Amino acid sequence: MAGGNHAAEEGREAKKAVIVWVCMMAAYTFMGFCQILWGISLGIWVNVVFSVICIVFAWKDKPGLASIGFSKEGAGKSFAAGFTCSAVIILLNGILPGILNGKILAPAGESFLRLLYFLFIIALPEEIIFRGYIMTRLEGVRTSKQAVLLSGLFFMLIHIPYQYLVSGMGFISYLLNGNLVTLAMTFVWHLVFCFIFKRTGSLYGVVLFHGIMDWSNYLFY
Q1: What is the pLDDT of residues 68-98, one digit of tens each?
Q2: How far apart (Å, rounded) are the C-alpha atoms in residues 215 and 98?
Q3: Ranges assigned E (strand) in the chain
Q4: Distance between CA atoms of residues 183 and 55, nearest Å
Q5: CA dist list (Å): 64 to 8, 61, 68, 192
Q6: How far apart are CA 41 and CA 148, in angstroms?
Q7: Are 213 and 93 in contact (CB under 8 A)?
Q8: pLDDT given at position 39
Q9: C-alpha to C-alpha distance for 102 and 98, rounded to whole angstroms
Q10: What is the pLDDT of residue 3?
Q11: Phi and psi for 73 in degrees, rounded to 5?
Q12: Cα gap 165→31, rounded to integer Å
C-alpha cells in the first residue's frame, strides 16, 4: 500500500511538472505578443515567477531544496566542475574569438552587470525549472535517461515561442535562418548540464557554467 501511495505521489509530481512547462509555453507566447504589440519585455518576470513556483512546489512535496539539486552534498565537486568548464568556455568562446577577430573588450562594470544577469536571471531560473524540478519529477515516472531526454525536449521547445514571434518570420523561415541549429545546440547543452548534475549530484556548478557560458558571448564588442 505504501509503495502504491509513493508511486501515486510521484505521478502527481510529474503531472505538476508537465503543467508547469505547458504554462511556461503559454507565458512565453504571451511574452512574445507583449513585445510585438506594446514593446513590453516580461522575460525577467516570467523566469523569476516560474522558478519561484517550482521552488514552492518542490518544498511542499519534499521540504528543503535538496530535491531540486541544491544541497551541501556534492556542492564542492559541482563547483569544481563548473569552474573548470567555465574557464574552458571563456577561453574558447570569449577570449580567443575576441582577440583573433580584433574586437574590443567590454567595460568591466558593464561586463560585471551582464554576468549577474546571466547567472541570476537566466541560468539560475532555467536550472531550477528544467534540471532541478521538471527533470527530477519526470524521473519519478520514467527512467533517468527518458527523463533527461524529455526534459531536454521541453527545454529546447521553450526557446521557440518568444523568439519565433519577435522574429517576424514564417515558422519554416525562422527555423532555416540558423535557429534549427541553435535549437539543436540548446538540446546538446541540456545534456551537458545534466551530465554535470548527475555526476556531482548538485546544480551549483551547473548554474555557474550555464551563466558564464551565456556571458562569454558578450565579453567583447
Answers
A1: 999 899 999 999 999 999 999 999 999 999 9
A2: 13
A3: none
A4: 26
A5: 21, 9, 9, 25
A6: 30
A7: yes
A8: 97
A9: 6
A10: 61
A11: -65, 120
A12: 9
Sequence-distant (≥ 6) Cβ neighbours of residue 8 within 8 angstroms: none
Cell representation of residue 44: 525577467
Distance CA 154, CA 148 (A): 10
C-alpha cell at 85: 568548464
**Which residues pair with residue 105 across a beta bridge?**
220
pLDDT of residue 145: 97
pTM for the whole structure: 0.95
> For residues 141 and 133, is the Cβ–Cβ distance under 8 A?
no
- Is residue 62 a contact partner of residue 133, using CB atoms and an 8 Å limit? no
206 CB burial (10 A radius; 0-12, 13-18, 19+): buried
- Domain map (residue ranges) of the chain: 2-218
State pLDDT tens for residues 150-186.
999 999 999 999 999 999 999 999 999 999 999 999 9
106-136 pLDDT, tens digit each: 999 999 999 999 999 999 999 999 999 999 9
Largest CA distance in the chain: 67
C-alpha cell of residue 131: 534540471
CA-based torsion, 117, 54, 17, 43: positive or negative: negative
Report the alpha-carbon distance of residue 118 to residue 37 in Å, rounded: 26
Residue type, 118: F
